[in-house]
C-alpha cells in the first residue's frame, strides 16, 4: 500500500511540474509551486520522515509561496515572451536528466535493510543515542547534538541570506500614512486574523520546545512564528507590522540567534570540553545535552524567525513602493 501511495504522489508531482512548465500565468505558477511542495511533504511523510515533511510544508508550501507572491507584486503576473531559442535549455535539461537517471542505475534496492546507509552510522545512533543524549526524538539528537557543527553552519547560511537580501533591497520604511495593505478594508479578515495569529504563535512555541519529544525544533518554529507576523502584515499593512516588530530589531535578533548558538560552543570550551560539547554544561552529561540542545534550538528559532520576517519586509516594502510609483 505504501508503494502505491508513493507512485500516486510521484505521478501527481510529475503532472504538477509539467503544468508549471507550460503555464504563462505566474500567479498560477506560484500556486502550483505551493502544491508541489505540499505533495513533496506528503511523500516525506509516507517515508516516515516527519521532521523533513514538517520543514517542507512550512518553508516550501508556506513562506516560499508568500515571498513569491510578494515578488509578483513587484514584477507582474504574466510571463514575457522569450525571444531566445528553447532548444539549448531543452538540450541541457535532457542531458542533465539522463545523467541523473544513469547515476541511479547502480543504487541498492530501496528500503533494503542491508543497504550501506543502514550499516554506516545509523546503528550507532539508534543504539547509543538514548544513552548518550537521552532524547525521545532521535532526529533532534542527530541534528542538534551529533551534527551540531552542521546545524550551526546551516544557521549561519540562513543569516547570510538575510544579509544578501538586505544588501540588495533594504527595507524602506513608509513615509505616507495611507500606504496600507490592500486588505485594510476587509473587516472579516481582521477578525479572523486576530483569532488565528495568537494560535499560530502558540503553536510555534509548542513546536520550538517540543522538538525533543516529537517533530519540530528551531527551524520549523521560526518559520511558523514568522508566518503569523507575515499574516499580520498582509492583513493590516506593513506600517503597523513595523510598529509591532521593526526591521532594525529583527536584524539584531538574527545576529543574536547565531551568537546564542555559538556561545554554547564557546562555553563548553571554557569548561574544558570541545566546541559544542554539551556534556560540559552540567554535572550530569544527559542533563548537559538537554540544556545545550534547548539553547541552540532557541538560537536557531530566533534567527530563522528574524530572517524570514526581514526578507518579507524587504520584498514587501519594495512591492508597495513600486505600486505607489
UniProtKB/TrEMBL annotation:
<dbReference type="InterPro" id="IPR046806">
    <property type="entry name" value="MrpA_C/MbhE"/>
</dbReference>
<keyword id="KW-1003">Cell membrane</keyword>
<comment type="similarity">
    <text>Belongs to the CPA3 antiporters (TC 2.A.63) subunit B family.</text>
</comment>
<feature type="transmembrane region" description="Helical">
    <location>
        <begin position="6"/>
        <end position="22"/>
    </location>
</feature>
<keyword id="KW-0472">Membrane</keyword>
<dbReference type="Pfam" id="PF20501">
    <property type="entry name" value="MbhE"/>
</dbReference>
<feature type="transmembrane region" description="Helical">
    <location>
        <begin position="290"/>
        <end position="315"/>
    </location>
</feature>
<dbReference type="InterPro" id="IPR007182">
    <property type="entry name" value="MnhB"/>
</dbReference>
<feature type="domain" description="Na+/H+ antiporter MnhB subunit-related protein">
    <location>
        <begin position="188"/>
        <end position="309"/>
    </location>
</feature>
<keyword id="KW-0812">Transmembrane</keyword>
<dbReference type="GO" id="GO:0005886">
    <property type="term" value="C:plasma membrane"/>
</dbReference>
<dbReference type="InterPro" id="IPR050622">
    <property type="entry name" value="CPA3_antiporter_subunitB"/>
</dbReference>
<protein>
    <submittedName>
        <fullName>Multicomponent Na+:H+ antiporter subunit B</fullName>
    </submittedName>
</protein>
<feature type="domain" description="MrpA C-terminal/MbhE">
    <location>
        <begin position="115"/>
        <end position="175"/>
    </location>
</feature>
<feature type="transmembrane region" description="Helical">
    <location>
        <begin position="53"/>
        <end position="74"/>
    </location>
</feature>
<feature type="transmembrane region" description="Helical">
    <location>
        <begin position="86"/>
        <end position="105"/>
    </location>
</feature>
<feature type="transmembrane region" description="Helical">
    <location>
        <begin position="250"/>
        <end position="270"/>
    </location>
</feature>
<feature type="domain" description="MrpA C-terminal/MbhD">
    <location>
        <begin position="11"/>
        <end position="75"/>
    </location>
</feature>
<feature type="transmembrane region" description="Helical">
    <location>
        <begin position="221"/>
        <end position="238"/>
    </location>
</feature>
<feature type="transmembrane region" description="Helical">
    <location>
        <begin position="152"/>
        <end position="171"/>
    </location>
</feature>
<keyword id="KW-1133">Transmembrane helix</keyword>
<dbReference type="Pfam" id="PF13244">
    <property type="entry name" value="MbhD"/>
</dbReference>
<feature type="transmembrane region" description="Helical">
    <location>
        <begin position="191"/>
        <end position="209"/>
    </location>
</feature>
<dbReference type="InterPro" id="IPR025383">
    <property type="entry name" value="MrpA_C/MbhD"/>
</dbReference>
<dbReference type="Pfam" id="PF04039">
    <property type="entry name" value="MnhB"/>
</dbReference>
<feature type="transmembrane region" description="Helical">
    <location>
        <begin position="29"/>
        <end position="47"/>
    </location>
</feature>
